[in-house]
Design goal:
Layout lengths: L1 H26 L4 E17 L2 E16 L12 H4 L8 H29 L2 H10 L6 E10 L14 E5 L2 E2 L2 H9 L4 E2 L8 E2 L16 E7 L2 E7 L2 E3 L4 E3 L2 E7 L3 H26 L4 H4 L5 H14 L1 H19 L7 H14 L5 H30 L2
Antiparallel strand pairs: 1-2, 3-12, 4-5, 4-8, 6-7, 8-9, 10-11
Helix pairs in contact: 1-3, 1-8, 3-6, 3-9, 3-10, 4-9, 6-9, 8-9
């Protein structure tokens, strides 16, 4: 079932990207000949009005065919059709149509990141933190993530316990650690007197036991428990410990706060993605991290199987990557069309198709190198 959901999600990203082009083209009066999911050969299709809606056999993306996207074909078109051709429209209209596709993908990525952050989904926030460690999406929590064997808390505390108070006072992680630290080991009894707690900062023996127990108030399975535990001193950590690892929780960002963090996440992830694309041509290690659509689908399937939070973040990342790569300034990518529309606006005249494709050929070769490399990595992975 996770494979079905994954494929539907990736298909939805492709369809929505092309739908952005399609709706924008219709809105500015261009003639759309074909709206295709995947590439030819054609499997099946249906024609409605002037537009054919079809599904191709090669699952490498999709496309919208607008009349006159090759300037050389315009002379062969009837006048009533030619006036609605792509290259007979002013540059601003062409730029709007082209940017609409990546714009939809950027919007999808933002909304998915924002939804995860605004709802405080732990799985999603962990995935965002792993995707970009510079973005703080998690905060320490007084929940117990793990209990160390052989330590004072072992057998008393459990994973999932929520510490709500220490020695009768409500705490966060920092104050809980300070309260535990305040229970010091007993100093050896001197001549003529009983043992007394060692002074803070004094020399303590590794593994010595606190003179008094720390009293933890814990929520467990809907019950409140009061559990006394004697901390022990760790010379390595240089502090008193009970032997627990605190868990993390999503930052409480709210609907408004999540907007800024989602935007920061997108910007940082985009810059990292572009940096890695550049490094791929010089670093074998980075090249081994690239995936084709096969590997991306497998990663997305694993995320779907892991839970909704993981899946939403990975789907958002795929949507963001789809937008960024499509904006590279080489034909036939969207960025190439934007570049030449801007060039025409600046020059005041159209750039020849031959010049456009000569410039784009270098970028196409580089991109094909990355695509082939990605397929090679995925084939090697699938072959074990």
């Amino acid at each position: 079932m996770s494979w079905v959901i994954t494929l539907l999600g990736i298909i939805a990203l492709i369809v929505l990207h092309e739908l952005g082009h399609f709706l924008a083209a219709k809105a500015v009066g261009m003639r759309v000949e074909r709206f295709s999911l995947f590439f030819p050969p054609k499997l099946f299709g249906i024609k409605r009005g002037e537009t054919e809606y079809m599904v191709g056999a090669l699952p490498f993306g999709g496309y919208v065919k607008i009349t006159g996207m090759n300037p050389e074909e315009i002379e062969q078109l009837p006048p009533e059709v030619a006036k609605r051709a792509y290259y007979n429209q002013p540059p601003w209209k062409r730029i709007v149509v082209i940017l609409a596709g990546p714009g939809v993908n950027l919007l999808i990525a933002f909304l998915l990141f924002w939804a995860v952050l605004a709802t405080g989904n732990l799985d999603g926030d962990i995935t965002l933190a792993n995707l970009n460690p510079s973005i703080v999406t998690l905060a320490p929590s007084t929940g117990v993530q793990a209990v160390e064997r052989g330590m004072p808390a072992h057998g008393t505390l459990r994973r999932g316990d929520q510490i709500v108070a220490v020695d009768g006072r409500r705490v966060d992680v920092a104050s809980a650690m300070r309260a535990i630290e305040s229970h010091r080991c007993a100093a050896a009894a001197g001549p003529g007197g009983p043992a007394s707690p060692a002074a803070a900062g004094g020399a303590l023996k590794d593994g010595c036991r606190a003179a008094t127990p720390v009293v933890l108030t814990v929520r467990r399975d809907g019950r409140t428990l009061t559990l006394p535990i004697y901390p022990r001193y760790s010379a390595k950590e240089k502090r008193m410990l009970v032997g627990i690892e605190f868990s993390v929780a999503p930052r409480q960002l709210g609907v408004v706060g999540a907007v800024g963090v989602a935007g920061h996440e997108m910007w940082s992830t985009t810059t990292n993605l572009l940096a890695n694309v550049g490094k791929a041509f010089t670093s074998e290690k980075v090249r081994h991290q690239f995936h084709s659509i096969v590997g991306i689908t497998e990663i997305a399937q694993e995320a779907v199987a892991a839970g909704a939070g993981y899946a939403l973040v990975i789907l958002g990342f795929v949507s963001l990557a789809l937008a960024v790569i499509n904006l590279f300034p080489f034909l036939p990518l969207d960025g190439g069309h934007v570049l030449w529309a801007l060039a025409e606006k600046v020059r005041g005249q159209r750039v020849s198709a031959a010049a456009m494709w000569r410039f784009s050929s270098v970028g196409i070769i580089l991109l094909l190198f990355l695509v082939i490399n990605g397929f090679s990595n995925d084939i090697s992975h699938l072959a074990g």
